[in-house]
Specification:
By secondary structure, this protein is an alpha+beta fold. It is built from 28 helices and 37 strands. The chain is globular, with a radius of gyration of 28 Å. The structure holds zinc ion. Zinc ion binds next to loops.
């Protein structure tokens, strides 16, 4: 029996104006396809963040389906070809089947991907023409119909709710993923979210496809359709064959679209593959031909009209609407509909699948070539390895870094004997990442000091630096505060391959006097929150203290011995990996501070939601800090103090917080007039000027305000504190430019906010603010807990004009009235990636009561 068509099953055609299939129905439909077609096998990989099924459909011929495990093994062996010579690789390529992963709609408002891929699955299950036969015989498709099921449901429900009203077609006013919103596609290396981990297991480690195609949508008034290749700068350590495959496949798809008369298709424009936070760019660093498509958006599923003059090029890659080599057939303007997007996406997908099917042997053999050459380069070119020594400021975070590398399919080893290299010594037990491995490019990208290229590819004609598509660096040792050493001579040492996380479950010894937790470990804070949640008293010691032979720096946690504590501590330690140090004598200290949680709030607004707010919540949920979400009312009404003691303002421009002048701000940022979507009045948030005044009063009356990144504007422009962000005056990017780079900063580790930090730490700084304090009679109330050093600031990324940042404050502790403001010019918790500076935020989330000894 043939499976029902989408029209029969859903009651309408996929791509019909104003019609979207919701995720639950899509999953049902895939189950039907699985049942009715021998060409489709649906695998539930697990649940999404909010408990919806996360599925993958394997699509291939029934004959191939019988031998999936064998083909998977071939795909893996070609990707890690240690035991293969060229002849064997060619033989495997002949025997194997090409593997292509396809996904869509990770960005939930980019609805078309999921709809298209559902239709595609039906056609592949039922069509019997030559093209489909060719594809099914030669290719195993790993189809991810949706990388963000929760968001798909949110968007479809929101869209249907307002269908037929004046708000039709607006995106939801909140984040379309519980925590990450649009940043769910910046989680490709840290893998914090469950959706990321499901995908990574299949694509990074179990199957390792040769090609990965990810469908997105872009702004309404650009080209109709973009398909890879993207444009310079590229990362030079990616094997050249990867770029050539991408060019070939993209051009093949573009020429197929041209053959069929699809207009407005562009390549080599404005996206860049120079970061690894996105899944498609990540694939490239794994020797996979990672392909991106971006279709011009409609109003969710409602057609949109575009005037010809609204169509424009970009600063990078294509400057006008004139026909150019990478955009030979401009679209003339007019109506644009969901159906159009479905057709562009579907046609390009077929073209890529056909190309891969025709070149199956070559594509499989290429994987061997790319992997082999990475191994060879690692043997012949420095650096030869990275070493992660066991002696670390926070060894558990170093272990976490190793775990991340393993999750990315990077091979990590443990030295079984001491290492001597370049006159330096590392003890046995050090972690070693040799670069003679297939994922050399990725390991290098993530571990090596990286200076973003500053050349004619990254400057415009006026010599202005062009903002990288994402951050200018993603170097894990900087992000995580882990010491990683580069080894520039061949390593000769006995090493053992790590097959799973080196995390251990420490033992907790009994004690009559209590336990100490080292404040240098991020994970200690996780233990503390769990103890506090169980009402177990925890204290901090503001001075250094000697325990056994070891001195703990200021801020160590003390857990007195009480009944039942040991049991809890054992459970928590096993879970978190922290080893509490048991005391063998009564604690002797001058001063003890009892640790409590203040009533914590996080400010949340609409206008599409604030991604930094989402990540902050993720971090707080993961580490166990209790909080409530605060919206405008208590702030506007001046009763915030009744609800919370401490309010976090995640990074956000002031206009988004007040709800005033947002379009003007956007126009300034994007340099074109901008209109917000039509949102119902109840979703127009903002606490207004009144709220700004009330927040200031909240602090003056004893409250604490935590201000991150862009939210600094509330202090400079809102509270009018005697400080300014000098980037507002500099304006010229040739003078100052820092688009997401890691910098050195100096920490006062005797200050409670700096407790547990090293004296010098890497920090992430993005664009602004560069804070200058006006000399004033209350200077002493502005305490610089972290500041930038006098020179040599840049660790990784891109920094023009370091003199502007030198010596400036990075974290301030400000007294205002009876209260306090803790302000971060850096990004202490960015995307939950900056482990190096988590503690600077955690330390802000306690309140202390002095105890008599
Ligand atoms: Zn997207």
């Amino acid at each position: 029996m043939a499976p029902p068509s989408p029209r029969e099953f859903f009651g309408f055609d996929i791509g019909e104006d104003r019609k979207l299939v919701r995720w639950d129905r899509i999953v049902e439909y895939f189950r039907v396809l699985d049942r009715e077609s021998p060409r489709i096998k649906v695998v539930v990989l697990g649940k999404s963040t909010e408990g919806n099924p996360f599925i993958m459909a394997i699509i291939t011929s029934p004959e191939n389906m019988e031998r999936l495990e064998e083909y998977r093994e071939i795909s893996r062996r070609l990707a890690y070809p240690y035991d293969l010579d060229e002849e064997e690789a060619r033989e495997l390529a002949r025997r194997g089947k090409a593997v292509v992963a396809i996904s869509g709609s990770i960005h939930a408002t980019e609805v078309s991907g999921t709809q298209t891929l559902t239709l595609l699955a039906y056609e592949l299950a039922t069509r019997n023409d030559e093209s489909v036969k060719l594809i099914l015989d030669n290719v195993i498709i790993l189809l991810f119909p949706c990388l963000n099921p929760d968001g798909q449901i949110m968007v479809v429900d929101w869209y249907n709710k307002y269908l037929g009203t004046e708000y039709e077609g607006s995106p939801p006013p909140w984040l379309y993923h519980k925590y990450t919103g649009h940043d769910n596609n910046r989680d490709a290396f840290m893998l914090t979210q469950v959706e990321s981990r499901h995908f990574a297991r299949i694509v990074y480690r179990e199957w390792i496809p040769q090609v990965y195609l990810d469908h997105h949508q872009m702004w309404m008034a650009n080209a109709r359709f973009f398909i890879s290749p993207e444009m310079d700068p590229i990362y030079p350590d990616v094997d050249p064959l990867v770029w050539r495959e991408i060019q070939f496949l993209g051009s093949y798809a573009a020429s197929r679209l041209a053959q069929k008369g699809f207009k407005g298709v562009e390549t080599y424009s404005p996206f860049t593959p120079d970061f690894v936070g996105a899944f498609q760019t990540m694939a490239i660093y794994m020797n996979i031909a990672g392909m991106l498509t971006e279709s011009a958006s409609v109003k969710i599923a409602t057609p949109i009209y575009i005037h010809p003059h609204q169509l424009k090029g970009y600063g990078r890659g294509r400057t006008s609407e004139r026909p150019t080599i990478n955009y030979p057939d401009p679209w003339p303007g007019g109506w644009w509909r969901l159906k159009n997007i479905v057709e562009y996406q579907k046609e390009s997908t077929y073209a890529i699948l056909e190309a891969v099917a025709r070149m199956k042997d070559e594509i499989l053999f290429n994987m061997y070539v790319k992997a082999r050459r990475n191994i060879e380069r690692g043997k012949s070119t420095p650096p030869y390895a990275f070493v992660i020594p066991p002696k670390q400021h926070d060894p558990l975070t170093a272990t976490k870094l190793v775990e991340i590398l393993l999750n990315l399919g990077i091979e990590v080893y443990v030295a079984e004997e001491p290492i001597e290299a370049e006159g330096r010594f590392y003890p046995a037990g050090s972690f070693v990442v040799p670069l003679a491995q297939p994922r050399r490019a990725l390991a290098k990208k993530l571990l090596e000091r990286f200076l973003y290229p500053d050349n004619e590819l990254t400057r415009d004609r006026e010599g202005n630096p062009i903002k990288p598509y994402d951050l200018a660096t993603e170097r894990l040792p900087d992000f995580m505060g882990v010491r990683v050493e580069e080894i520039n001579e061949p390593l000769r040492v006995r090493i053992r391959k790590l097959s799973s996380s080196p995390k251990s479950s420490p033992e907790v010894k009994t004690s009559d006097y209590g336990w100490m937790l080292d404040s240098r470990l991020n994970a200690s804070h996780m233990v503390v929150t769990r103890l506090l949640a169980r009402k177990i008293p925890v204290f901090r010691i503001p001075t250094p203290i000697k325990i056994g032979g070891e001195e703990l720096p200021p801020g160590a946690f003390y857990v007195p011995a009480e009944e039942a504590v040991l049991e809890v501590l054992r459970g928590v330690a096993a879970e978190v990996g922290v080893e509490p140090k048991s005391l063998d004598r009564p604690l002797e200290v001058e001063e003890l501070l009892k640790v409590e949680f203040p009533r914590i709030g996080i400010y949340q607004r609409y206008y599409g939601g604030n991604i930094d707010e989402g990540w902050t919540r993720w971090l707080m949920d993961t580490y166990g800090y209790p909080y409530k979400i605060v919206r405008d009312e208590p702030i506007k009404e001046g009763r915030l103090g009744e609800e919370v003691d401490l309010l976090i303002l995640p990074s956000d421009p002031l206009s988004y917080m007040t709800g005033e002048n947002i379009e003007e701000e956007l126009a300034k940022r994007f340099k074109i007039p901008m209109k917000l979507p039509p949102w119902p009045p109840e979703y127009k948030s903002g606490f207004g000027q009144k709220g700004v005044e009330n927040l200031k009063k909240f602090v003056e009356n004893g409250g604490t305000l935590v201000v991150i990144g862009d939210a600094f504007e509330i202090l400079t422009k809102g509270f009018k504190l005697p400080m300014k962000d000098i980037t507002e005056d500099i304006k010229d990017p040739k003078k100052f430019f820092c688009p997401g780079s890691t910098l050195r900063a100096l920490v006062d580790i005797t200050h409670p906010l700096g407790w547990g930090m090293p004296k010098e730490t890497p920090v992430l700084f993005i664009d602004k603010p560069v804070i200058e304090l006006a000399p004033n009679y209350e200077n002493e109330k502005y305490v610089e807990v972290v500041r930038f050093p006098d020179s040599n600031l840049l660790l990784s990324g891109w920094l023009i004009g370091e003199q502007y940042l030198a010596r400036k404050p990075a974290v301030l502790d400000i007294r205002l009235g009876k209260g306090r403001i803790i302000a971060y010019a850096i990004r202490p918790q960015f995307r939950a990636q900056t482990h190096a500076t988590f503690k600077l935020l955690f330390n802000a989330l306690y309140r202390y009561e002095k105890q008599k000894i």
